[in-house]
Amino acid sequence: MVYRVGIDIGGAFTDLVAYDDETGEFVWVKDETTPHDPSIGVLNTVVKSKVDFSKVYSIIHGQTLVINTIIERKGAKVGLITTKGYRDVLELQRSNRRDMYNFRYKKPQSLIPRYLRLEVDERIMSDGTILKPLNEEDVKKAMEKLLREGVESICISFINSYANPIHEIKAGEIVRKSTDLPITLGHEITREWREYERTATAVLNAYVKPKLEKYLGKLESEFIKHGFSRKPFVMLSSGGVASFDFAKKYPIYTIESGPVAGVIGGIHVAKLIGEKNVIILDGGSTTTKASLVEDLTSRVHTEYYVERTRFTAGYPVRVPVVDTFEIGNGGTSIAWIDEIGNLRVGPKAAGAYPGPACYGKGGKEPTVTDAYVVNGLINPEYLLGGAMKIYRELSAKTIKEKIADHYNISVEEASEGIIKLANENAAYAIRVVSVQRGYDPRDFTLIAHGGSGPMFAPFISEELEIKKIIVPVIPPGVFSAWGMLTTDIRHDLVVTEIIRLDRENASKRVNEIYRELEAKMLSIFKEELGVAEIVLQRYADMRYYGQEHTVKVPIPSSNINDSEVKKIIERFNEYHEREYAFRLDSPVEIVNFHLVGEYRVKKFELKELNNMVDSIDEAIMQERKIYINGDELNVLVYNKQKMSPRFRIEGPAIIEDPTSTILVLASQRAVVDKYGNVNVLRGE
Amino acid sequence: MSKKDIFTLEIIKNGLITANEEMFYAFGRTAKSPVIYEVLDYAVGITDAKGELVAQAPGVPGFSGVLDFVAKEVLEKWNGEMQSGDVYILNVPYKSGTHLNDVTLAMPVFYKDELISLILNKGHWSEVGGMHFGSWTSDSTEIYQEGAQFPCVRLYREGKPNRDVIDIILENSRLPLHTLGDMEAQAASMKVAARRIEKLIEKYGIENVKYAMEKIINDGYKLALLNLKKLPKGVFEAEDYLDDDGLTDKPVYVRVKVTITDEEFIADFTGSGSVKGSIASPYPATVSGVRETYMAVTDPRADLSGGYFKPLKVIAPPGSAFNPVKPAPTSTYWEAMSYATDLVWKALAPHVPDKLTAGHFLSILATILGGIDDRTGEPFAIVEPQAGGWGAGYDMDGESGLVACGDGETYIASNEVYEKHMPILVERYCLNIENGTGHGKFRGGFGVIKDYRVLCSEASFTVSIGRNKFPPWGVAGGMNGTPNYCVIYKQGEEPKIVRKVAAVKLKKGDMVSLRSGGGGGWGDPLERDPELVRMDVKNEYITLETAREIYGVVLDPKTLNINWEETKKLREQLKKKKK
User: Fold this and answer.
1) How large a percentage of chain A has pLDDT more than 90?
2) Packing angle between helix B6-30 and helix A411-433, nearest 10 degrees?
3) CATH number, domain at A121?
4) What ipTM was estimated for this complex?
5) Which end of chain B offers a freer environment for a tag, N or C, measured as fewer CB atoms within 10 Å?
6) Residue A541: which domain range?
């Protein structure tokens, strides 16, 4: 057994990375994504990779099937059974009007029409006691109706089930007697309070479940046919991985499984080079994503929404997701002039097809990539190592006609305007994950990956006074798939129970809850992997009594006594002050108990570089004319593949390889570390 | 300015907008009152040296129009004497405010000796004194009963807190620590914006920053004129009634005349009656209310700037419900203010169908339910607006259970959270199907029913409900919506229907049922697609009888299949009857 394999499905391509534990060699292949049945694209990469799957001991898979099924509204016909008096929770939602001046505002539509939302008599109180027992006849009747209507998946979600799930469990048993359809119980997906958010999350799980069961089942049997003999894993939105069996039951936990892998890869790079606090910038072709990592730990929260924008509420998904911010700004974002004559970039993008004008595939709109080509920042002869033909004249033509002529300026000036605005958009994403969350971006190192990440980063670092940028040695196209190979097997358990820490016996109950969660965690891992050596980390969502918002605080794993409680409160005060800039004298309470369990996989090192060439001069590819900051200059272009750790390049300069271009501005310099990561530094 | 710098200007513009956004988040993150960080009952803005808005971020749409009035008052009073580091404090409603709880701070930004900008932050303070706890009340007859007044005085002088003023403020508050905390958070967040503006000046030069501000205002004006071109021109009128005058049960007549030309959008409330109680909308609040509809009909997503609002004029005779004069009380000003929004909306809805719906439930149904939790001996209080039904559009049914126009990104609380914190049981939280909605070719959305059962020995209940006597209006033959009301169920007593009550005592086991109305319909119900009617019956939004009697659609009671022949006959019959 020598290989571990990561397979990532993206919008345009499916990537496979295989790492040979014995030789340290990587294999990576890509093939087109096949949206109608993504398993075809996956299996194409498997064949193409020529990896002997009987020697593979681990497969980790990231997919976009869950999110696409939701976005395209192609999920199952779901029936919901809920508490009497609460039939309309999915339709009422939280009643907010996010697009507040739009008097024709529409909420996200309930994924279940009213006639498939049925009530049963039962009631649990907020302390978990039973006010009204479950009326089992109601459940049977509801099931009869739902089956008559031809539902394909069942969701059961009751009020206060986070405090006591007994009725959901009972109802589930009754339902199971009359059908083999997939069943989702609200409390199984999340034990957090708030009826709308919990129900909506469970319903989304039920909505995607039949499709995911089928898809993962098919992949599993295909992997076996290729000789694979272990259990494959899926990437979770929390940054961990879990078995296919887990994902079949709880597919909603994988909703962001693709993008998250890039963050995990970024953390692994940071770890290898000794950085602790980093912001990871993923500049893709249509969007830019930013994620902040403090002390090598990403911010994992359960406040995620699908389809949420500045103007739409979206659907809440209360499962652990790595905190990322995404903006519609990437390499193929379209530049346009708005009705009052101002230049804009994005959020519309040309994507892979028709793509930027310079691809010559019929793209007529000017894009950020066209601006790079016109101003010489991208090498027209060298994109994908020259494998792709680039037509500079098409870029120049569309930028002239659509932008430059409007302002009566040169094509180069117009291109620079497009580049500036794209940089500004990317910088905004960084501001959101740092400044708006109470962090100072100057305290962080920027890890820039993706096709356009290393192009945005030098400008962002000037704007936000970030001292250091790292462009990882891993090719941007497969960074996410590579990131998967670095993940641990992880599960999160979250349960809402409110404990005021100034009350007597508070520590007793706190210990009890964590112990219950830990026992449950152990049994999950036992069942999944048959392992017991797992690393547990406790967290608590805490707040001042009387407040609504909480702060996530790490909790020691030892037995918690009164003096520990004091320390926890003090730590909460510190975290609260950082996030909200003040502390209070009020009593402190725990709202959510959060336990993370991880089974640590063997990590691999990046291979150290041999000195490629003796002299920096040998790395020089050409001298190129570029247009930057209103000036035309000649800069040296270096071959990234020939860079050695001793070399130091003063800006302005360009470093290229077949898949990416790194810009070094005049005020900056670049060095290469022993693994081949390029560090761009500013200041002293 | 050279041609190529036009893009730099774009970046400075974005910088100013981001500075404002960061002030918004900083205040939200640091404020001590839930009404700030939960309800987002605040607004921030940046103006140029003349007090024209260059960036504005309101947490609720009702605050879109109140900041530039403050800037202008500050400039009028202090111009020439202003120093760097000064902060001014204002809350007097008539000229620049809403009610006394809404306190605005203003901070000038200088470059060398030149005034460049004013930074503004208006937030709802939990306590400013007055006759009742929490300061705002529905039974005041003079502003003096509603709290302390801060008439544009210096809270900070050259960067130092002005102890004299601060001591007076704190002495007048029942919650001095909250008040001080909110005040400090407000001032600190403004410094965030000031620093960003100073950085922009440092990086891009003072001339470019000034030019960018000018460009924002000019661009806003340009965009507004372009949008006005798309609107129908002419004079549009609407009238309506407030349920009462704030103190007695007598309805008050209100009206508007909207004039739209290529350059102007004028809302004239002349002819509207006056009120007695605290429901009057101060002129700046009236302008805010009209700005909401102005945004809705022009471009709901346009950046808010002085330039964008330049074509808008609001005329409201002094002494009317829309322009009270000193010493009129204004602490529940939103009641009349929502009518300023709604009247303009009503006048224009038939003419701008792609932007406006039929009338919605309008009232925020401000609710307070509080008492002492027997289990802990600690006080609890629910203070909340309710959601309700919105009107139909020319091509779509209305939305159900949405907050009113005065609220925006406002979240109705989770019932599980309420039940955990308070001795109440939310027995029902569902669509208000039983009262129906405004039927039409497209029907209004449904209101909401929320039943609170009291579980502690004693509680107190206050509610202020509008649009009870005069329901949401339909358009183009669509029926009117249904009224908002509340039912109080006391044990051993007949249920009582109410619309405004203050501090009603409730006992364990008593229940209050809040019921918001459905929105108005659009178009003749007899023209509704029978398939939609069938689905409405299947979904139990309407009954078989309603389908038959109002929509003229005959369904098989068992299969719900449409009987097309009978439907055709019945619809013809009903049409004749209507004529």
Assistant:
1) 63
2) 10
3) 3.40.50
4) 0.95
5) C
6) 489-599
